[in-house]
Specification:
With 91 residues, this protein is mostly beta strands. It has one domain. It is built from no helices and seven strands. A seven-stranded antiparallel sheet has the order 1-2-3-4-5-6-7, with no helix packed on it. β5 and β6 form a beta hairpin. The protein is globular and about 35 Å long. The protein starts with 10 loop residues before the first strand and ends in a 5-residue tail after the last strand.
Length: 91
């Protein structure tokens, strides 16, 4: 399965207000992330769901081993990644 424009193999460093993360898009079904800084330090490879919104814009969602959940919208046309997360405790 492929989705036109989804950059499988892409590696990127993303800076959010509270942390930085390194991402690698392994496939349409898997992403790895590496948060190197405390208090969020964590590495994991997770299964993802990807659905294109438009050319170069892809929302991804996943669940981590801890039960935390995340969704991000990767906008490759603008070079921006938006993120929402929910902890395992629902916060």
């Amino acid at each position: 399965m492929s989705i036109a424009g989804f950059p499988v193999g892409q590696e990127m460093n993303v800076t959010y207000p509270d942390f930085k993360v390194s991402l690698k898009l392994h496939s349409l079904m898997q992403i790895s992330f590496d948060l190197a800084e405390e208090p969020f330090a964590h590495k994991e490879t997770v299964s993802i769901q990807v659905q294109p919104l438009s050319n170069g814009v892809f929302p991804l969602s996943w669940a981590e081993e801890s039960g935390a959940r995340g969704t991000n919208v990767q906008d490759f046309d603008r070079g921006v990644v938006h993120l929402t997360t929910r902890s395992a405790e629902g916060r």
